[in-house]
Amino acid sequence: MARITTAELANAFIDEQVALVREQVGDKKVLLALSGGVDSSVVAALLIKAIGKQLVCVHVNHGLMRKGESENVIEVFKNRLDANLIYVDATDRFLDKLVDVSDPETKRKIIGNEFVYLFAEEARKLADDVDFLAQGTIYPDIIESKGVKAHHNVGGLPEDLHFGLVEPIKLLYKDEVRVVGRALGLPAEMVDRQPFPGPGLGVRCLGAITRDRLHALREADAILREEFDKSGLASHVWQYFIAVPDMKSVGVRDGKRYEGWPAIIRAVNTTDAMTATIEEIPYSVLNTITARITAEVEGINRVLYDLTPKPVGTIEWE
Predict the structure, then answer these.
(1) Which of 79, 228, 264, 268 would be a feasible disulfide site paired with 243, CB 3.0-4.6 Å?
(2) What average pLDDT does this structure show over 235-261?
(3) Bridge partners of 310?
(4) Pairing of strands 256-269, 239-243
(5) C-beta of residue 54 within 8 angstroms of C-beta of residue 21
(6) Does the pTM of the predicted model rise above 0.85?
């Protein structure tokens, strides 16, 4: 299949997938894990075009979302797109499952399995049977799951899964997904939204997740995104985020010894997510971000900048 680089190619792809989905699904209902990210949003728009109200979108707040993320998802999909949306706050359920779990692959699989189990529960609550689970799997997910790292929507599915899978964009790269999203008429703020992993902050709160460190990560990440918006970097950097490891160092606050975690900034550019280069951030912006995070976020006493490209690093730390 030719790379999707134009609206004409995107429209041809959309027509093809609409026909395939209608043939696969028939008159059955489909559940979609709607994170609000580019991939799941494009899948939602495709399926709404193909099967309309047969699509049931489920947005799960697993307690690992960025600050304000779930609220934004509800506003966009409920108010703008009139989606058939179910909101589930499962924060305690997920975080309880992740207590003392430090291995990244185990964390990813726990989160992926809980998603599937939760969707099964939601399906049973519906008046009519749901036979299919739609996913925003894209081609780099499949490639990386064969030897680099597990993805929540590929390697974490249990063997007893009773849903058929609908994965209309599984052969696309991220840049192609965006072209398709524009052709579907999705708003720019959704199509150009920064990528966010399925396990959310769970793979950025490095090591075993604790609620206090997760809170610090969420607040620091919000500051980073705010300052990138102010400086104009948000439109030039493909993905930028904070990671907080499970380690502390000695610092000073208010004239007293203060132990805190480091906040690690990562900012990369890429076209296909298979390789990535590091974005140069002006020192003045780094200085502002550092000053704000160390002053405003309880538990953070250092800010670091990750200069490692992909390869040898991956885009995410875990």
Answers:
(1) 264
(2) 94
(3) 276
(4) antiparallel
(5) no
(6) no
